[in-house]
Protein backbone atom coordinates (compact mmCIF):
# COMPACT_ATOMS: atom_id res chain seq x y z
CA UNK A 1 0.00 0.00 0.00
CA UNK A 2 1.34 3.42 -0.92
CA UNK A 3 0.87 6.36 1.44
CA UNK A 4 1.20 8.82 -1.41
CA UNK A 5 -1.81 11.03 -2.27
CA UNK A 6 -3.74 9.72 -5.28
CA UNK A 7 -2.54 11.26 -8.53
CA UNK A 8 -4.73 14.10 -9.74
CA UNK A 9 -6.24 13.10 -13.08
CA UNK A 10 -5.20 15.81 -15.51
CA UNK A 11 -8.02 17.14 -17.67
CA UNK A 12 -7.82 19.54 -20.57
CA UNK A 13 -10.14 20.83 -23.26
CA UNK A 14 -8.81 21.09 -26.81
CA UNK A 15 -10.38 22.21 -30.08
CA UNK A 16 -9.75 20.53 -33.44
CA UNK A 17 -10.40 22.80 -36.43
CA UNK A 18 -10.68 20.96 -39.76
CA UNK A 19 -9.53 23.53 -42.32
CA UNK A 20 -8.41 21.32 -45.19
CA UNK A 21 -11.41 21.88 -47.47
CA UNK A 22 -10.99 23.54 -50.85
CA UNK A 23 -14.26 25.47 -50.57
CA UNK A 24 -15.26 25.04 -54.19
CA UNK A 25 -18.81 26.30 -53.54
CA UNK A 26 -17.34 29.68 -52.62
CA UNK A 27 -15.92 30.07 -56.09
CA UNK A 28 -12.33 30.00 -57.43
CA UNK A 29 -9.42 31.24 -55.32
CA UNK A 30 -7.45 30.30 -52.21
CA UNK A 31 -8.62 27.44 -49.94
CA UNK A 32 -11.69 28.68 -48.08
CA UNK A 33 -10.09 28.86 -44.63
CA UNK A 34 -7.39 31.18 -45.95
CA UNK A 35 -9.75 33.73 -47.47
CA UNK A 36 -9.95 37.07 -45.73
CA UNK A 37 -12.87 38.37 -43.68
CA UNK A 38 -12.47 41.94 -42.50
CA UNK A 39 -8.85 41.71 -43.68
CA UNK A 40 -8.07 38.65 -41.52
CA UNK A 41 -8.06 35.03 -42.78
CA UNK A 42 -11.22 33.09 -41.89
CA UNK A 43 -9.12 30.44 -40.15
CA UNK A 44 -7.58 33.04 -37.83
CA UNK A 45 -11.08 34.15 -36.79
CA UNK A 46 -11.99 30.52 -36.11
CA UNK A 47 -8.85 29.90 -34.01
CA UNK A 48 -9.52 33.08 -32.02
CA UNK A 49 -13.15 32.02 -31.49
CA UNK A 50 -11.97 28.76 -29.86
CA UNK A 51 -9.12 30.35 -27.89
CA UNK A 52 -11.56 32.98 -26.58
CA UNK A 53 -12.96 30.30 -24.28
CA UNK A 54 -10.90 30.20 -21.09
CA UNK A 55 -11.45 26.44 -20.97
CA UNK A 56 -9.64 25.81 -24.28
CA UNK A 57 -5.88 25.37 -23.77
CA UNK A 58 -4.97 23.77 -27.11
CA UNK A 59 -6.17 24.34 -30.68
CA UNK A 60 -5.21 21.80 -33.37
CA UNK A 61 -5.62 23.20 -36.88
CA UNK A 62 -5.91 20.60 -39.64
CA UNK A 63 -4.38 22.14 -42.75
CA UNK A 64 -4.71 21.08 -46.40
CA UNK A 65 -2.49 17.98 -46.92
CA UNK A 66 0.15 20.00 -48.79
CA UNK A 67 -0.42 23.28 -46.94
CA UNK A 68 0.69 22.76 -43.33
CA UNK A 69 3.75 25.02 -43.65
CA UNK A 70 1.70 27.81 -45.25
CA UNK A 71 -0.96 27.57 -42.53
CA UNK A 72 1.68 27.56 -39.77
CA UNK A 73 3.25 30.72 -41.25
CA UNK A 74 -0.17 32.38 -41.52
CA UNK A 75 -1.01 31.63 -37.89
CA UNK A 76 2.42 32.87 -36.77
CA UNK A 77 1.66 36.13 -38.62
CA UNK A 78 -1.57 36.48 -36.61
CA UNK A 79 -0.65 35.55 -33.02
CA UNK A 80 -3.34 35.25 -30.36
CA UNK A 81 -3.85 38.24 -28.09
CA UNK A 82 -2.47 38.25 -24.55
CA UNK A 83 -5.75 37.01 -23.01
CA UNK A 84 -5.93 33.93 -25.22
CA UNK A 85 -3.08 31.73 -24.15
CA UNK A 86 -4.01 28.55 -25.99
CA UNK A 87 -1.25 26.60 -27.72
CA UNK A 88 -1.83 26.23 -31.49
CA UNK A 89 -0.65 23.12 -33.37
CA UNK A 90 -0.91 22.55 -37.14
CA UNK A 91 -1.18 19.09 -38.70
CA UNK A 92 -1.77 18.07 -42.34
CA UNK A 93 -5.32 16.91 -43.17
CA UNK A 94 -6.88 14.38 -45.51
CA UNK A 95 -9.20 14.03 -48.46
CA UNK A 96 -12.48 14.21 -46.49
CA UNK A 97 -13.61 16.13 -43.44
CA UNK A 98 -13.87 12.87 -41.49
CA UNK A 99 -10.26 11.97 -42.31
CA UNK A 100 -9.09 15.48 -41.43
CA UNK A 101 -10.82 15.29 -38.03
CA UNK A 102 -9.30 11.84 -37.39
CA UNK A 103 -5.82 13.23 -38.08
CA UNK A 104 -6.51 16.16 -35.74
CA UNK A 105 -7.66 13.83 -32.95
CA UNK A 106 -4.50 11.74 -33.40
CA UNK A 107 -2.42 14.83 -32.55
CA UNK A 108 -4.08 15.39 -29.14
CA UNK A 109 -2.02 14.72 -26.01
CA UNK A 110 -3.26 12.07 -23.56
CA UNK A 111 -4.45 14.56 -20.93
CA UNK A 112 -7.15 16.02 -23.24
CA UNK A 113 -10.49 14.69 -21.97
CA UNK A 114 -12.92 17.08 -23.69
CA UNK A 115 -12.61 17.87 -27.37
CA UNK A 116 -14.40 20.38 -29.55
CA UNK A 117 -14.56 19.95 -33.31
CA UNK A 118 -15.12 23.27 -35.05
CA UNK A 119 -15.38 24.08 -38.76
CA UNK A 120 -12.90 26.71 -39.92
CA UNK A 121 -15.82 27.77 -42.09
CA UNK A 122 -17.74 29.01 -39.00
CA UNK A 123 -15.40 31.87 -38.07
CA UNK A 124 -17.82 34.03 -36.08
CA UNK A 125 -19.25 31.68 -33.45
CA UNK A 126 -19.62 33.65 -30.18
CA UNK A 127 -17.67 32.50 -27.12
CA UNK A 128 -20.88 31.99 -25.11
CA UNK A 129 -21.90 29.23 -27.52
CA UNK A 130 -18.45 27.60 -27.21
CA UNK A 131 -18.68 27.73 -23.41
CA UNK A 132 -22.22 26.33 -23.37
CA UNK A 133 -21.04 23.29 -25.36
CA UNK A 134 -18.03 22.70 -23.08
CA UNK A 135 -20.17 23.01 -19.95
CA UNK A 136 -22.66 20.42 -21.18
CA UNK A 137 -19.83 17.94 -21.95
CA UNK A 138 -18.23 18.53 -18.56
CA UNK A 139 -21.63 17.90 -16.94
CA UNK A 140 -21.62 14.42 -18.44
CA UNK A 141 -23.03 14.49 -21.98
CA UNK A 142 -20.80 12.40 -24.31
CA UNK A 143 -21.71 14.55 -27.35
CA UNK A 144 -23.11 18.08 -27.48
CA UNK A 145 -24.20 19.99 -30.57
CA UNK A 146 -25.31 23.63 -30.93
CA UNK A 147 -28.45 23.77 -33.05
CA UNK A 148 -31.18 26.10 -34.27
CA UNK A 149 -34.73 25.57 -35.51
CA UNK A 150 -35.12 25.71 -39.29
CA UNK A 151 -36.45 28.74 -41.12
CA UNK A 152 -37.16 26.76 -44.31
CA UNK A 153 -39.39 23.74 -44.64
CA UNK A 154 -37.32 20.76 -45.84
CA UNK A 155 -38.26 18.25 -48.55
CA UNK A 156 -36.96 14.73 -48.97
CA UNK A 157 -36.31 13.77 -52.60
CA UNK A 158 -35.51 10.76 -54.71
CA UNK A 159 -31.73 10.98 -55.20
CA UNK A 160 -31.04 12.22 -58.72
CA UNK A 161 -28.79 9.69 -60.38
CA UNK A 162 -27.29 10.80 -63.63
CA UNK A 163 -29.95 13.46 -64.25
CA UNK A 164 -28.79 16.78 -65.63
CA UNK A 165 -28.23 19.63 -63.19
CA UNK A 166 -31.44 21.61 -62.62
CA UNK A 167 -33.83 18.79 -63.70
CA UNK A 168 -36.98 18.52 -61.58
CA UNK A 169 -36.62 16.10 -58.65
CA UNK A 170 -39.43 13.95 -57.27
CA UNK A 171 -40.48 14.78 -53.70
CA UNK A 172 -40.84 11.71 -51.48
CA UNK A 173 -41.70 13.36 -48.18
CA UNK A 174 -41.96 16.46 -46.00
CA UNK A 175 -40.56 15.96 -42.47
CA UNK A 176 -42.40 17.98 -39.84
CA UNK A 177 -40.34 21.16 -39.52
CA UNK A 178 -40.92 21.53 -35.78
CA UNK A 179 -39.07 18.23 -35.25
CA UNK A 180 -35.95 19.31 -37.19
CA UNK A 181 -32.88 21.31 -36.15
CA UNK A 182 -29.97 22.71 -38.16
CA UNK A 183 -26.72 21.79 -36.44
CA UNK A 184 -23.62 23.93 -36.08
CA UNK A 185 -20.17 23.69 -34.57
CA UNK A 186 -18.28 23.58 -32.25
CA UNK A 187 -19.56 20.13 -31.40
CA UNK A 188 -18.23 18.96 -28.04
CA UNK A 189 -17.31 15.41 -27.04
CA UNK A 190 -16.01 13.25 -24.32
CA UNK A 191 -12.67 12.52 -25.97
CA UNK A 192 -12.84 8.74 -25.54
CA UNK A 193 -16.29 8.61 -27.13
CA UNK A 194 -15.20 10.54 -30.23
CA UNK A 195 -11.99 8.51 -30.55
CA UNK A 196 -14.07 5.31 -30.39
CA UNK A 197 -16.44 6.57 -33.10
CA UNK A 198 -13.55 7.44 -35.43
CA UNK A 199 -11.90 4.07 -34.77
CA UNK A 200 -15.09 2.12 -35.43
CA UNK A 201 -16.29 3.94 -38.52
CA UNK A 202 -13.36 4.16 -40.89
CA UNK A 203 -13.64 6.72 -43.63
CA UNK A 204 -15.84 5.10 -46.26
CA UNK A 205 -15.87 5.88 -49.94
CA UNK A 206 -17.31 9.23 -50.96
CA UNK A 207 -17.76 12.23 -48.70
CA UNK A 208 -17.33 10.41 -45.35
CA UNK A 209 -19.12 11.73 -42.27
CA UNK A 210 -19.93 15.43 -42.53
CA UNK A 211 -20.96 15.57 -38.87
CA UNK A 212 -19.00 14.08 -35.94
CA UNK A 213 -22.06 13.83 -33.72
CA UNK A 214 -23.66 11.59 -36.33
CA UNK A 215 -20.79 9.12 -35.87
CA UNK A 216 -21.40 9.12 -32.11
CA UNK A 217 -25.10 8.41 -32.76
CA UNK A 218 -24.08 5.40 -34.85
CA UNK A 219 -22.03 4.26 -31.88
CA UNK A 220 -25.25 4.25 -29.83
CA UNK A 221 -24.18 6.99 -27.40
CA UNK A 222 -26.59 9.85 -26.61
CA UNK A 223 -26.15 13.17 -28.41
CA UNK A 224 -27.79 16.30 -27.00
CA UNK A 225 -28.43 19.74 -28.48
CA UNK A 226 -27.87 23.13 -26.87
CA UNK A 227 -29.02 26.43 -28.40
CA UNK A 228 -26.86 27.49 -31.33
CA UNK A 229 -26.34 31.06 -32.51
CA UNK A 230 -27.21 32.78 -35.78
CA UNK A 231 -23.63 34.12 -36.01
CA UNK A 232 -22.27 30.55 -36.03
CA UNK A 233 -23.42 30.12 -39.65
CA UNK A 234 -21.15 28.34 -42.11
CA UNK A 235 -19.48 30.43 -44.79
CA UNK A 236 -20.20 28.26 -47.81
CA UNK A 237 -21.42 30.39 -50.71
CA UNK A 238 -20.45 33.89 -51.91
CA UNK A 239 -23.46 35.53 -50.18
CA UNK A 240 -22.27 34.12 -46.83
CA UNK A 241 -19.12 36.26 -47.19
CA UNK A 242 -21.29 39.38 -47.48
CA UNK A 243 -23.17 38.38 -44.32
CA UNK A 244 -19.93 37.62 -42.45
CA UNK A 245 -18.49 41.04 -43.36
CA UNK A 246 -21.70 42.67 -42.12
CA UNK A 247 -21.51 40.80 -38.79
CA UNK A 248 -17.89 41.89 -38.34
CA UNK A 249 -18.76 45.50 -39.19
CA UNK A 250 -21.57 45.43 -36.62
CA UNK A 251 -19.22 44.02 -33.97
CA UNK A 252 -16.63 46.69 -34.70
CA UNK A 253 -19.26 49.43 -34.44
CA UNK A 254 -20.50 47.98 -31.15
CA UNK A 255 -16.95 47.70 -29.78
CA UNK A 256 -16.39 51.38 -30.62
CA UNK A 257 -13.53 50.82 -33.10
O1 LIG B 1 -17.10 21.16 -47.04
P1 LIG B 1 -17.68 21.56 -45.73
O2 LIG B 1 -18.22 22.96 -45.75
O3 LIG B 1 -18.61 20.59 -45.10
O4 LIG B 1 -16.41 21.63 -44.77
C1 LIG B 1 -16.56 21.80 -43.38
C2 LIG B 1 -15.18 21.96 -42.76
O5 LIG B 1 -14.41 20.77 -42.99
C3 LIG B 1 -14.39 23.13 -43.35
O6 LIG B 1 -13.81 23.87 -42.29
C4 LIG B 1 -13.36 22.43 -44.22
O7 LIG B 1 -12.14 23.14 -44.33
C5 LIG B 1 -13.14 21.10 -43.50
N1 LIG B 1 -12.64 20.03 -44.39
C6 LIG B 1 -11.42 19.40 -44.09
N2 LIG B 1 -10.91 18.42 -44.90
C7 LIG B 1 -11.55 18.06 -46.04
C8 LIG B 1 -12.80 18.68 -46.36
C9 LIG B 1 -13.33 19.65 -45.52
O8 LIG B 1 -10.79 19.74 -43.08
N3 LIG B 1 -10.99 17.16 -46.81
General description of the model:
The protein is α/β, with parallel strands linked by helices. Helices cover 30% and strands 21% of the residues. It has a single domain (12-159, 168-255), classed as Spore Coat Polysaccharide Biosynthesis Protein SpsA, Chain A. The chain has seven helices and twelve strands. The strands form three sheets. Strands 1, 4, 5, 6, 7, 10, 11 and 12 form an eight-stranded mixed beta sheet that branches. Strands 2-3 form a two-stranded antiparallel ribbon. The longest helix is centred in the last third of the chain and has 18 residues, at 238-255. The radius of gyration is 19 Å and the shape is globular. The mean pLDDT is 91. Cytidine-5'-monophosphate (C5P) is lined by residues 18-21, 32-33, 62, 93-97, 100, 119-121, 210, 234, 236. Pfam families: IspD (PF01128). It is an enzyme of class 2 (transferase). The record marks 25, 32 as: Transition state stabilizer. One of its GO terms (molecular function) is 2-C-methyl-D-erythritol 4-phosphate cytidylyltransferase activity.
Topology overview:
Elements (H helix, E strand, L loop, with lengths): L11 E7 L17 E2 L2 E2 H10 L4 E8 L4 H10 L9 E6 L4 H10 L5 E6 L9 H12 L4 E7 L6 E2 L13 E3 L7 E3 L3 E4 H10 L11 H8 L4 E4 L10 H18 L2
Parallel strand pairs: 1-4, 1-6, 4-5, 7-12
Antiparallel strand pairs: 2-3, 6-11, 7-10, 7-11, 8-9
Helix pairs in contact: 5-6
Bound molecules: cytidine-5'-monophosphate (C5P).
EC number: 2.7.7.60
GO molecular function: 2-C-methyl-D-erythritol 4-phosphate cytidylyltransferase activity
Catalytic activity: 2-C-methyl-D-erythritol 4-phosphate + CTP + H(+) = 4-CDP-2-C-methyl-D-erythritol + diphosphate
Amino acid sequence: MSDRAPAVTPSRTAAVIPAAGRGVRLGPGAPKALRALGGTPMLVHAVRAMAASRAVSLVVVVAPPDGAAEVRALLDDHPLSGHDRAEVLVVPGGGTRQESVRLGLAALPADVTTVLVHDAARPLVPVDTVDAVITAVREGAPAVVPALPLADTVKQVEPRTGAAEGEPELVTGTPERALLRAVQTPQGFDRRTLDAAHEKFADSAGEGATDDAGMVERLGAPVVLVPGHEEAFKVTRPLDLVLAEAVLARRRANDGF
